[in-house]
Amino acid sequence: MNAYFKDQITQFKQQNQNRGRLLVSCPDQPGIVSAISNFLFYYNANIIESSQYSTNPEGGVFFIRIEFECPLLKEKAAEMKQKFTEIAAKFSMEWSLTPVYKVKKAAIFVSKELHCLQELLWEWQSGDLMTEIALVIGNHEEARDVVEGLNIPFYYIPANKEIREQVEEKQLQLLQDYEVDVIVLARYMQILTSRFVAANPNKIINIHHSFLPAFIGARPYERAYDRGVKLIGATSHYVTNDLDEGPIIEQDIARVDHRANVDTLKKIGRSIERSVLARAVKWHIEDRIIVHQNKTIVF
Fold first, then answer.
1. Do the domain assignments include residue 157?
2. How far apart are the C-alpha atoms of 70 and 47, rounded to whole Å?
């Protein structure tokens, strides 16, 4: 990473050294918000943003995201986490308390198509995607120049189904070496094994066209064109062992008509893929997503 982006991240950390994010999901019942508010008040924390949702006030599931400012958060964070376990036990909570200054490290996986990678790099360069892009892994060489031009490590690891396990051994070791928090599949055209997915639960974000399940497999745009589709789009989701059926984070569409040829459809599709993936990654690194069963709550 070059000096400019290091300075950008350093400045972000300094500006947010006292800011934290609390995500909670638990069975809905009276007293949850009061308990959380009193906890934060005890540590002299000021709530900056709060969003909540309940699937059903009677017997449903309650979700809340709180962003707060807390003086000397670095010194207090460990104690706060320990103390919050008592509240979490009382209300049967699943929760996370994350200091904002701990910028998440991302690994981007890419194949030949670079439009999603380039969108992420642009968002990162502009400061709108506040993550540390630790490395990029490609099973083709096309991305090397653009990645190394930004002083980001690029690893070329050829992959196919015959050597998939050996390839993933190398990839998992790199993810461990770089202490990666989130993996972004920016049009990475390889299927991940169940072992790889299990090692990174709710940490792998994928993007694909929205023609599934109607047009599975090769040449989806050509087959969609032959059917005269009127809507095209993209879906970003967390990766699970069920191929392309993980919890959906974000989607978008565009209308098309008979005047759009295959190349036009692909161009529109790539544009939607770029923006949808960028939003999904941004929401993840901002701790705006709670995964519940096979759905997401996005605050």
1. yes
2. 9
Element holding 112 (H helix, E strand)? none
Instruction: Please give the average per-residue pLDDT across 13-42, as a whole number.
Output: 97
Q: Which residues contact 60 (CB under 8 A, 6 or more apart)?
A: 27, 28, 54
State the Cα angle at 286 between 285 and 290, rounded to 5°. 90
> Could you tell me where the DSSP H helices lie in 126-211?
144-148, 164-177, 194-198
Indicate whether 2 pLDDT > 70.
no
Angle between helices 262-285 and 115-125 (to 10 degrees): 40
Mean pLDDT score, 105-133: 96
Across the range 52-56, mean pLDDT stands at: 94
Q: Which two tokens stand for residue 195?
A: 């072992």
**Range(s) of the domain holding residue 289:** 105-298
Angle between helices 73-91 and 32-42 (to 10 degrees): 160
SS3 213: coil
Per residue in 265-290, pLDDT tens? 999 999 999 999 999 999 999 999 99
Residue 3 is predicted with a pLDDT of: 67
Residues 95 and 116 in one domain: no
Who's near 257: CB < 8 A, 6+ residues apart? 230
Rounded Cα–Cα distance for residues 114 and 146 (Å): 9
pLDDT at position 212 over 70: no
Q: Are residues 62 and 93 in the same domain?
A: yes
With beta carbons less than 8 A apart as the criterion, state whether 74 and 48 touch.
no
pLDDT of residue 243: 80
| Residues belonging to the active site | 244
The total of structural domains in the chain comes to: 2
